[in-house]
Amino acid sequence: CTGSICIKANAQSCGECIQVAESCGWCSDEKFLSSGESKSARCDDLQSLKDRQCPEDKIENPRGAIVIDKDTPVTNRKKDSKEKLKPEEITQIQPQKLTLTLRSGEPQTFSLKFKRAEDYPIDLYYLMDLSFSMKDDLENVKNLGTDLMAEMEKITTDFRIGFGSFVEKTVMPYISTTPARLINPCTGNQNCTSPFSYKNVLKLTDKGDEFNRLVSQQQISGNLDSPEGGFDAIMQVAVCEEQIGWRNVTRLLVFSTDAGFHFAGDGKLGGIVLPNDGKCHLENNMYTMSHYYDYPSIAHLVQKLSDHNIQTIFAVTDDFQPVYKELQNLIPKSAVGTLSSNSSNVIKLIIDAYNSLSSEVILENSRLPEGLSITYKSICKNGVEGTGENGRKCSNISIGDEVSFQISVESQKCPSHGKSEVIKIKPLGFTEEVEVVLKFICDCECSAEGELNSQRCHEGNGTFECGACKCNAGRIGRLCECSKDEVRTEDLDANCRKDNGTDICSNNGDCVCGTCECKKRENPKEVYSGTYCECDNFNCDRSNNKLCGGHGVCECRKCICDANYTGSACDCSLDHSTCLAKNGQICNGRGTCECGICKCTDAKFQGPTCELCPTCPGVCAEHKDCVQCRAFDAGEKKETCERDCSYFQLITVKDSSKLPQPTDQIFPLTHCKERDANDCWFYFTYAIRNSTKEVYVVEKLECPPGPDIIPIVAGVVAGIVLIGLALLLIWKLLMIIHDRREFAKFEKEKMNAKWDTGENPIYKSAVTTVVNPKYEGK
């Protein structure tokens, strides 16, 4: 097949051929090539080699393989078991070592099993901020050793605890460097110890009483700024394994503080510019280089915590929860808990955080060699599967639960050194790891039997292997007959010019021994080909940003389209199914189907199948006038009926039950009911059968019966009488109401009337009284 990627890769040896693609093979039969064929024609896809009569035992097609070197089963162990195992005797991941033999383009997939062991040992290091604001917290931590021991016994019988403290770098402006403040950094009558960067108070021990005793002896200290130097302390705890006493078990670091943190770059404030070196600098359990090295960066801290399998629990007060939750997102296998103002809830916080961390397993791998890719698929609890980034992890794992991962490793090319590589895969926060040894198939087995400096290769200028000559350095040609220093001659170059043009090998290759050797591109799937390298498989027309529209292959800069597609970019579909309207017609009979898309010829119609007509009446309204004029000799088109309405075949039926029904037809049918000028209804159907328009119409109009006069007149008279009576009753009612109001008004005025009781001014009494003036009353 001329379009084969194997052929176009122009492979000059079996080793080059098998790296082109997984499907490529090399024919090592000496008699395989015809006269004039290029050596690269030996490289082709497997079926093509068989079709070209290459014997099956001569087809070189090495395959990859997986060998499990160490496969210790995961440990099934109960907490109450009398058998006491050392940490190194407990296995939680299986297998432990594999060897993968990889061929370019061929993925190798293996299964990895993980099971949380019961009663797994735990080392916990409590790192506490001893700045002055943590004074009340120190009191509650003094009994932490024995109390935490008692709680952890419910989880493991092998538990060790350690303690360390930190304050800040011992330089300005982080602390006051006046002599008095160096001795006692606290103000007032407070008795505080000298400031320090980090102190390892107690290495990991199984003696809770010793923890309580040493913590009780600790004194609070102080500094000037709010952020603390906790990152310096975390770095030393991570890298000083021997001084801290870490074992190869579950490692927990509890970081307790009520403040923020300094990080890389902040040291410039104190004149410290050297980056943190990530090494242990403990002398007499004190960090001695805080004044010399800057704070570590977050990325540096993440690397060291991961390298030393330490899971971090940030026990911080509520004020700094948002800051440390952001930090948690950057540090894998870490948790954040809310610490009460006096650390009284620290034990519950540690237990909850441990359960959260241990219920999730996340796989990580060491740095991959160039050209290697790895993908994960998780099969978690209850058969839940995850892919992509979720394929690396499983959550909600209880003790004793078993989960598995499908891991695929694929190589795109052989490493330049050709040697084996080693990668390691491990669950974050655990010391166990899987060692994967990678071996690469970079050459064919037949190359081991090659004949060095063979006479078959033009006077010994190459190695004859796998049925062809593999030329020595500086030699080229099918039989290594040319020297690279001699090939640039005008006579030979003329053979590499197409149609006597000026471009050698179309500027896409080199003229070697009078033959064009085409250039190879970075993408192995993009190749130049042809006698003059005039062809390629990537410079064809595109559609939707896809080469040949995704419906063809690019051969010699022209698209060879798949069936049912045409066009320069294979973007024209010959499939008319997308143009079919609901009535079964292509583009509803209103347009043409071009490249699977309707082009509507009637401007009124639109839509993907020319069925939408926003300005058109319905089918019934459209044909109403013509049906009316032809069936009943009436309507608006009565005068022009013969001219305008002969486009359909009219069939009359006696009643509507005789009309065709949709279930009886294999073509779309429309039932219509329309009204004429006399308010009579007529019924008809409209259909298109084999491009013939058929109209079935009921021969009789359905007119409403005339009105019954007597009931109408009687109703009108009765209505008038009733309305008159009603009006009289209303008038009478209103008059009664009015009279009653007037009478009530009269009565009220009568009661309010007042009569004058004085004498009539014109009245004169008939009695006259005369008094004798001389009468003295004697």
From TrEMBL:
Subcellular location: Cell membrane; Cell projection, Invadopodium membrane; Cell projection, Lamellipodium; Cell projection, Ruffle membrane
Disulphide connectivity of cysteines: 14-24, 17-54, 27-43, 186-192, 240-280, 414-672, 442-446, 457-469, 466-505, 471-480, 482-496, 511-516, 513-548, 518-533, 535-540, 554-559, 556-587, 561-570, 572-579, 593-598, 595-641, 600-610, 613-616, 620-629, 626-703, 645-680
Domain PSI stretches: 5-55
Domain Integrin beta subunit VWA: 13-444
A GO biological-process term: cell-cell adhesion
Topology in membrane: Single-pass type I membrane protein
Segments traversing the membrane: 709-731
Record keywords, A-Z: Calcium, Cell adhesion, Cell junction, Cell membrane, Cell projection, Disulfide bond, EGF-like domain, Glycoprotein, Integrin, Magnesium, Membrane, Metal-binding, Myogenesis, Phosphoprotein, Receptor, Repeat, Signal, Transmembrane, Transmembrane helix
Pfam families, sorted: EGF_2 (PF07974), EGF_integrin (PF23105), I-EGF_1 (PF18372), Integrin_b_cyt (PF08725), Integrin_B_tail (PF07965), Integrin_beta (PF00362), PSI_integrin (PF17205)
The organism's place on the tree of life at top rank: Eukaryota
Domain Integrin beta subunit tail: 620-708
A Gene Ontology term for the protein's cellular component: cell surface
Keyword NADP attributed: no
Record's keyword annotation contains Transmembrane: yes
Domain Integrin beta subunit cytoplasmic: 732-778
Gene Ontology terms for molecular function: C-X3-C chemokine binding; collagen binding involved in cell-matrix adhesion; fibronectin binding; integrin binding; laminin binding; metal ion binding; protein kinase binding
Family: Belongs to the integrin beta chain family.
The protein's name in its UniProt record: Integrin beta
Species assigned in the record: Sphaeramia orbicularis
